[in-house]
Design a protein that fits this description.
Order of helices and strands: HHHEHEHEHEHHHEEEHEEEEEEHHEH
Number of domains: 2
Structural class: alpha/beta
Strand content: 15-25%
Strand order of the largest sheet: 13-12-11-10-4-9-8-5-14
CATH topology of the largest domain: Dihydrodipicolinate Reductase, domain 2
Oligomer: single chain
Largest sheet: 9 strands, mixed
Bound molecules: 6-O-phosphono-beta-D-glucopyranose
Helix content: 25-40%
Number of helices: 13
Shape: globular
Length: 421
């Protein structure tokens, strides 16, 4: 195995220069079809080359861009297209946009990106679950009390207010990143690492999500918007002050989710994400059940597996351990077992780096298939529409906090707590 000490040691001036020489810039305004002529001129001598188009725009423009590329005969059998999420704003608009793109590219040429799938720690979920015997018999409702996923950010919506305001946290983070994480944590073992084998299993999870009924909507969903507060000692504006307009777009979401299948029957998955929270923190907590009977006098904490991908990439298993000493009665304490190689030995890959390499290699494993995108919209649409009817009222939270109090009570009502640092 090659061990990298740090990225500076990897940097090779000569190779970097050669790479730079291969980069050509060409300006196109996709609202002005004739500007595609510039791209045609750039590419005209290379009809059969493999071309990858990356649409990092709002999905409203995908059709227009496809049409112009097609009019200028820039799309061939060897072309691939990368589509940024979120595709559409709901199931119907997503279907429509996908159909439009499918008029120009075949499904196997379309790569729907979700950059969370490019994160090493996220891919490591597959390694952790399916290559370690010790976790295999424990990964189910009999042994796991619940799972928590937190994707919190201290940044606000910055210069993206107009865009974000159309989408909100549900469409920006839950429908894609959080749903994909739930899939990887909950899926059955795929028969191989074949792209479709993995995606088939993820799809089954999405199709097994229990719809949140209107009567449960208030207890199982929280939506909120940040107001002015303080982060790291600095005062920050509220969402509406940032946007200078009224809006009922949520910047925070918390959900209690159930997956109705044999493995997960009645095991809650609590997920939360928000902007302008106290810190940026991305982590998954697998909370195991208590031992059936304790022979010890002091309380034994149930085991917990904490998979963190920001700020540190780490996996920690909390176990009970005897406090060394000569006490008459045995005393226990919780200790953390670090499951990672020292970070200094590992080169940190950027999620996009991995995904772009995969599209060049024509490997769609870490990209979302159309049916996954549709299934995720189908489930989130029901919540969004209940929210539009104000079934779960919009709350506010102070910037620099961990969301509104109701997110704490969502778990407290079940006798559980969020894992905080
Ligand atoms: C993007 C969202 O997909 O993910 C952003 O559109 C969010 O709103 C970002 O800030 C978070 O990604 P990461 O990798 O920094 O956790």
């Amino acid at each position: 195995m090659k061990i990298f000490l740090n990225s500076e040691e990897l940097f090779d001036e000569e190779k970097s220069k050669k790479f730079e020489d291969l980069i050509k810039y060409c300006h196109i305004d996709f609202k002005e079809e004739k500007t595609f002529k510039n791209l045609e001129n750039l590419l005209k001598n290379n009809q059969n080359e493999e071309r990858i188009f990356y649409f990092s725009t709002s999905s409203d423009f995908y059709e227009t861009i496809c049409k112009s590329l097609n009019d200028y005969k820039l799309i061939s059998e060897n072309s691939r297209v990368v589509l940024e999420k979120p595709i559409g704003k709901d199931l119907d608009s997503s279907k429509e946009i996908n159909e439009k793109v499918l008029g120009y590219f075949k499904e196997e040429q379309i790569y729907r990106i979700d950059h969370y799938l490019g994160k090493d720690t996220v891919q490591n979920l597959l390694a952790l679950r399916f290559s370690n015997k010790m976790f295999v018999p424990l990964w189910d409702a009999n042994n796991i009390d619940h799972i928590q996923i937190t994707l919190s950010e201290s940044v606000g919506v910055e210069s993206r207010w107009e865009f974000y305001n159309e989408y909100g946290a549900m469409r920006d983070m839950v429908q894609n990143h959080l749903m994909q994480l739930v899939c990887l944590l909950a899926m059955e073992p795929p028969h191989s690492l074949d792209p479709n084998a993995i995606r088939d299993e993820k799809l089954k999870v999405l199709n097994s999500l229990r719809n949140i009924e209107e009567k449960d909507m208030k207890d199982h969903t929280v939506r909120a918007q940040y107001v002015a507060g303080t982060i790291d000692g600095k005062e920050v504006q509220g969402y509406l002050d940032d946007g200078k307009s009224t809006s009922d777009t949520e910047t925070f979401v918390a959900l209690k989710i159930f997956i109705d299948n044999f493995r997960w029957s009645n095991t809650p998955f609590y997920i939360r994400t928000g902007k302008r929270m106290s810190s940026k923190n991305s982590e998954i907590v697998i909370q195991f059940k208590s031992i059936p009977y304790s022979i010890f006098d002091n309380y034994t904490m149930p085991n917990k597996l904490v998979i963190s991908f920001y700020p540190d990439e780490s996996i920690t298993l909390n176990l009970m351990h005897k406090i060394p000493g000569l006490d008459e009665k045995m005393k226990l304490q919780e200790v953390s077992l670090e499951l990672n190689p020292p970070r200094s030995f590992v080169r940190k890959n950027e999620a996009y780096e991995r995904l772009l390499l995969d599209v060049i290699r024509a490997n769609p494993t870490l990209y979302m298939r159309l049916d996954e995108v549709k299934a995720a919209w189908k489930w989130t649409d029901k919540i969004i529409s209940a929210w539009q009817n104000n079934i779960t009222p919009m709350e506010t939270y102070k910037a620099g906090t961990n969301g509104p109090n109701s997110v704490v009570s969502m778990m407290a009502k079940d006798g559980r707590v969020w894992h905080e640092h």
